[in-house]
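haha ok so turns out i had the wrong file open the whole time. this is the CORRECT one, sorry everyone. sequence first:
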Amino acid sequence: IGVLDSAAAMPAKLSIFYGGLKVAGFAKNDVMVEYRSAGGDYARLRELVGGLLDRRVTLITAFGSPAALAAKAATAETPIVIAVNANPIEIGLVDNLNFSGTNVTGVAGMVIGRDHMRLELLHAAVPSASVFGFLLNPMNSNRHAQISQAHASAEKLGVRVKIIEASAGRDFDNVFAELAQTQGLVIADDEFFLSV
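then structure:
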């Protein structure tokens, strides 16, 4: 089994994965697992999934939308099991949630909208603020929906959001410089921010 992870290696994630195999009746030693992590560097995913396919894995488990999209782009034959926080139809992984018609299946959290709650909580904590930063990854397949919802939420609250983007560690000097122009920060859902 190939495991492709968009974020940095997380022991808890692998522990849950092995727990699932155990529930399915497999002992850890019964299955060879090839784990690859992009560490938040989504540009590496194509190479990593290629390496898994070179190893002739019989299944790819993809954690995160970027990993799932890279796996789907790389193969139409090897089964892919996804775990994503996005609507798989909207990001092009499947055409139908009931029957994908492809080699892709899995679970989707579809959590777009939590940022609205975060913005509301931040506004309640700092009611005098007029501008909040909204940090997102420009490589995220949900980017446009995140920006649209952030602006809509801010408008309802009578505040503005300043979109701040980061997709690599080197971007954070700019993030902190832009953050100085705001009175608070909401961090969008993205595997990258779990790995920095």
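The mean pLDDT is 88.
again sry for the mixup
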